[in-house]
Protein 1
Amino acid sequence: MASGSRTRISNGTRRAVIIAAVMPTSSISDTSPEIERRQVESWRRMTPAQKAALISGLTGAAFAMTAAGVRQRHPDASPREQFLRVAIIALGRDLAILAYPDAAGVTHA
């Protein structure tokens, strides 16, 4: 590609690439192709606000499960240490330390 030139990708192509990247292949999926097709159709019918709410809820659930796992593995840790451990998991150690310098004192164990 020439310097400075850009390839335009249509929204439809972009969506197809994103869906292909996150959808399991049928060889490893426990979901039938018909159900997968229906799920994708339901996502396509969702408004942007509905999709944002769905992703927000899933993200919240993922953080809640991460925090529960930290509490289970480190029951004697203070609330701050538990928060820092979640930050390290979610952000990676280096970024967590940049955001929360006291995270540097959290051991890997």
Protein 2
Amino acid sequence: MLFEVTELKSSLVEQNAAAAKALEQQSHAMDERVSFFRLESRPKGAGARTKKEVAKHEQAGRVQAALATAMGDDPEWDGPEAIAAVG
């Protein structure tokens, strides 16, 4: 029973990491597709991201994926309540 739960959790973590990577790739593709749009004047605080902000966001995505993978290696990370909720 414990082995099956551990396998299930590991699979879910791998799926989460794969989804995070896919979303990151889709984000890059979307950035490329809309990069040719330019505003003549951009009001302050209009929501446009600087390269530094984009880099920070990408780093957060990589950290999240690495954390999800690492948490999958620890069978105690989410406690018995989460196991009961899954199965």
